[in-house]
Specification:
single chain; 478 residues; alpha/beta; nine-stranded mixed β-sheet; six-stranded parallel β-sheet; 18 strands; 18% strand; elongated
Length: 478
């Protein structure tokens, strides 16, 4: 099957969030299943020289974007069985940052047109064009007409993945014809019209042949207003073609047996190295060197929907439970300040690392005992899967991918991979935190069994790729 995967960011070339991890790993997993997979992304200024030196210039042409005909250059790179097309236009993509510009609507409309027009220029006939989030939401819409005009697109079907429904691409009605190049007939309730505005994600949900989300639970949650940010009716109307598929992680990159960032390697069978990693983490974070104190960690953007109101309210209770804690991340000032104050109030027991650091996050995954992730909403989440891979047991709220990936500890059978709670409530969260701390102290054998269960859970992309292959088969009949 021929698959064209369109994404606004792709690891390892350019990354701002989880979308890049998906776009970097899923195509490779699909290629291993025998498919011809091509990935298309913008050639941003921030893409490093080490990658540019591996690219080959293919061609250039002018895309058709309403009354504009902007230049589009295509560079190609082959890596791990996947062909990558980089869309070059310095006016749109030679910017100081990936997102957040005044003309993002025009930038990604141009990119969407490039996605649609590139197959005809490179001679690639995709069976499926897989689009992701609002930045490529116009692709399934453009495809409605273009598959009749472009021979290479004649049999193409579209799959659209919602990674985060909060960001929908909402713009004024006046951009429909002048910027996006779409006729007024597209502005109706079963396409782009949304309370008098244009909503690109809404249009993509209606236009796509199939829609996926990044976890089964998140797919169900999107039918409710609390999670859907106004699109609950649209999701319900298209429920027949929506499926949740849990994301995976790169189990080669995140492997405690071979991760060069760890102080000492370890595995589910040989856990001695984790004690060394814990001691190293305590030293790095300025925590007391106490092997018996469970270390609770957070690695996250410090924002409200990640549940940090609960964490801030529970700091004193967590300290009273006899645990140490380290928080790594940046975000809203109120959370940053609360954690700095906690570090001042509990020296040697609470560490506030208000920064972004790959090296520190690796040390945390490898050395912490518990990973706290009390998200209000979490489409999928990768951190809890990475933590489990390193034997750091997650404490999560049962939402989205957290619910789908963490099996709660059963005190009667000993089964489970972590600890979970249901309500957005500090008391509920602290109940399971205390439960986890008590188990850590009172039953090392049960703790080690949980660690082994967590470390041996299959979160590889191979599993998810087979689910996407099934979806592609449904829409193409192949």
């Amino acid at each position: 099957m021929n698959i064209l995967f369109a994404s606004s960011e792709v690891a390892p070339f350019i990354k701002t969030g989880g979308l890049a991890d998906v776009a970097g790993s899923l195509p490779q997993a699909l290629a291993k299943l025998g498919h011809d997979v091509r990935v298309i992304l913008p050639l941003y200024e921030k893409i490093g020289q080490e990658w540019r030196e591996q690219m080959n210039y293919l061609m250039n042409f002018h895309v058709h974007l309403a009354w504009r005909t902007p230049y589009c250059g295509i560079f190609e790179l082959q890596r791990d069985g996947v062909t990558y097309y980089f869309v070059d236009n310095e006016y749109y993509f030679k910017r100081w940052d990936v997102y957040g510009h005044y003309d993002d609507a025009e930038r990604y409309a141009f990119f969407s047109r490039a996605v649609i027009e590139t197959p005809g220029h490179v001679g690639f006939c995709p069976d499926v064009i897989h689009c992701n989030d609002w930045q490529t939401a116009l692709v399934p819409i453009y495809l409605l007409d273009e598959r009749q005009r472009v021979p290479e697109l004649r049999g193409a079907k579209s799959v659209y993945t919602i990674h985060n429904i909060e960001y929908q691409g909402r713009y004024g009605r006046d951009l429909l014809e002048d910027l996006f190049g779409l006729p007024g007939s597209y502005f109706h309730e079963r396409m782009l019209s949304f309370y008098g505005d244009i909503n690109l994600m809404k249009g993509a949900i209606y236009a796509a042949d199939y829609v996926t989300t990044v976890s089964p639970t998140y797919a169900g949650e999107l039918k409710y207003a609390f999670y859907a940010h106004g699109l609950e009716g649209v999701v319900a109307d298209n429920e027949h073609k929506i499926r949740g598929i849990l994301n995976g992680i790169d189990d080669v990159r995140y492997d405690p047996q071979s991760d060069p960032g760890l102080a000492k390697s370890f595995s589910a069978k040989q856990m001695a190295g984790k004690k060394v990693c814990k001691a190293t983490l305590q030293q790095m974070a300025g925590l007391e060197q106490d092997a018996d104190a469970p270390v609770i960690a957070c690695v996250s953007r410090l924002v409200s929907h990640k549940g940090f109101d609960l964490v801030v309210d529970a700091i004193h209770d967590i300290m009273a439970a006899g645990a140490q804690m380290v928080v790594l991340g940046t975000g809203e000032w109120r959370y940053e300040e609360a954690f700095r104050n906690a570090a001042w109030q509990y020296p040697g027991r609470f560490s506030a690392q208000i920064m972004y650091s790959d090296a520190f996050s690796t040390a945390i995954y490898g050395g912490a005992d518990l990973f706290l992730m009390p998200s209000v909403a979490e489409p999928c989440g990768l951190s809890q899967m990475i933590a489990m891979r390193y034997g750091t047991l997650p404490v999560v709220r049962e939402t989205g991918g957290l619910r789908d990936s963490v099996q709660p500890w059963n005190q009667f059978t000993g089964e489970g991979t972590g600890f979970t709670f249901t309500n957005i409530d500090k008391g509920d969260m602290m109940w399971v935190v205390r439960q986890a701390v008590e188990l850590y102290h009172s039953d090392p054998k049960a703790w080690k069994k949980l660690q082994k269960n967590a470390m041996t859970t299959d979160f590889s992309w191979g599993r998810s790729a087979k689910d996407y292959q099934e979806v592609y088969g449904w829409v193409t009949g192949k």
